[in-house]
Amino acid sequence: MNVNPVFEKEIKRNSRSIKISWIIFGCNLVLGVIAFACFFGESRIVGYLTPNSYSMPMKCYVIMAYAMFLLIILAVPSVAGGSIALEREKKTLDVLLTTNLNPWKIITGKLEASLGIIFVMAISTLPIISLIMVFGGIEYIDLLYLVINLLVVGIFVGSIGIFCSVVCKKTTLATVMSYLIVLLLVGGTIAAVAIVYYVDGLSLADAVYYHHTDIGAAIYILLLNPFLSFAGMICSQIGTGHEMAEICSLLGDYSNNPIVNHFPEAGMAVQLALSGILLFGAGYRINPLNR
């Protein structure tokens, strides 16, 4: 099997990087502290732990899942954001482009290296997360679904970082821009929908007859938010699975909307599609023939 040379080089460099080692160590430390606090905090309250107690492992699982999401949001932009910009600063990008590797292979190799870090983080944390399964409440399929969602988040955030790394010439600027865009997607989409909801409410205030506020197609802006699609996945595992649809129903009538009713899956599909567009744009931008 042919391995992408860029991916192979990045993996070797990351394996020697103390920064990556600290990221993996920090991830396991955070999850270990969460597991310790949940297990021993529960035992301190009730005096003992029983295999039939489902509240404690479920709470522990939810906190761990959100902690891993946060760690990926914080770690991937710092790695992917400087992937191409660092090559440019070291004067090795032009040399890399003169090889028989096309720009698409260079971009995908950088993305694969970023996802490799997520994969190592996920594998290294499995012993800690598997403690939850001792008490039940979480199945293997739930862990698999969690890993898939984290990979989707990693692809989305990583593609943003790589695109910024191509557009920005400096590593620091590319990394900062990556964090700003991710923050805009997480908080800005919610703020945009809130503004639309407020404006629609003002227009209805002067109406003769009362109408329920309906933001219409503006709800689809939330599909760009990786946090909401991830939260919807968690809700589908620990709740009824209709929590996101119920929240959206407060913003309009979406009872027969298949996209809203399958919000987590739709969100991941949109984010993967946008990731493909960003990676294609990054490959087009670094292609010497397009300069």
Spell out the blueprint of helices and strands.
Elements: H1 5-15, H2 18-46, H3 55-80, H4 83-89, H5 93-97, H6 103-129, H7 140-167, H8 171-205, H9 226-238, H10 243-249, H11 258-261, H12 263-286
- Taking all Cα atoms into account, the compactness measure Rg is 22 Å
Strand content: under 5%
Number of DSSP helical runs = 12
Secondary structure category: mainly alpha
Number of β-strand runs: 0
Largest sheet: none
Walkthrough of the structure:
- It is a single chain.
- The chain is mainly alpha-helical and 291 residues long.
- It is 74% helix and 0% strand.
- It contains twelve helices and no strands.
- Helix 2 (18-46) packs antiparallel against helix 3 (55-80) and helix 6 packs antiparallel against helix 7.
- The longest helix is centred in the middle third of the chain and has 35 residues, at 171-205.
- It is globular, with a radius of gyration of 22 Å.
Highlighted features:
291 residues, mainly alpha, 12 helices, 0% strand, globular
In short:
The protein has 291 residues and is mainly alpha-helical. It has helices at 5-15, 18-46, 55-80, 83-89, 93-97, 103-129, 140-167, 171-205, 226-238, 243-249, 258-261, 263-286.
